[in-house]
Give the backbone structure.
Amino acid sequence: MSQKITVFLPTYNERANLPVMVERLMALGLDLSILIVDDSSPDGTGDAAEQLAAAHAGRIRVIHRDGPRGRGLAGIVGLSEAAKTDCDFVVEMDADLSHEPEEIPRLLQAAEQADVVIGSRYIAGGKAENFGWLRTLNSATARWLSILILGLRFSDPTSGYRIYRREVLAQLPWEGMISPGPSIVEETLYYVKRLNARIVEVPIRYVERKHGSSKITIGIILRWIMTLLKIRWAAKT
Ligand SMILES: Nc1nc2c(ncn2[C@@H]2O[C@H](COP(=O)(O)OP(=O)(O)OP(=O)(O)O)[C@@H](O)[C@H]2O)c(=O)[nH]1
Ligand SMILES: [Mg+2]
């Protein structure tokens, strides 16, 4: 039986990447819709998204956010809205082509026996291509802090390439989620784990972005650590 899929893409300044991303997703030939959440990108990604939505009538929805931008703010809106769509599974992935759409069928296969599938760079068969020593150190530290603070004992708890069973996503406490930035990835995993959801990891190849630039700053990293502590604190009280 063919599965219905909603792909959630957060975008900020991904004008060069988004059309390629959408084309590659549509070429998979799956029963797939796309939800784009753009934070009023100055490079016009929002307009590009609207053009794509017009070209693929009924299959692409765009949400434009105003006010403060954030991967987490966009993630809360995107995932909670995706959980309301008519689908079996929600795919979450970056729009910068680091997560390859062609891996979705293999991840979906794993999702048949699970509630959440994490695309992992760090299990056998996985790869983080062209990671320099600094990027490797950052990623390893982020993983270690996620395990230490939130108990997320996975090979790649910070991976933003995932598949969620829609019913599981719909049960998460979106109103109470507090991550403004990238810690939404760990916060979501923290709450699905508390639901005793079946979580599996499947190897993926992570490709460094070729167009556009990273949105990660030192401020975002420091706030990321503070937010992990707050998530843990909020769960205790
Ligand atoms: N809507 C929205 N999307 C964002 C924001 N920040 C990042 N994103 C998107 O989230 C995804 C991941 O962000 P990246 O900047 O690629 O973060 P990263 O993958 O950890 O780092 P690099 O690959 O090195 O750039 C991409 O699709 C971004 O466009 C934001 O503030 N708002
Ligand atoms: Mg990226």
User: Anything to note?
Assistant: Strands lie at 4-11, 31-38, 60-64, 89-92, 116-120, 127-128, 162-165, 199-203, 205-206.
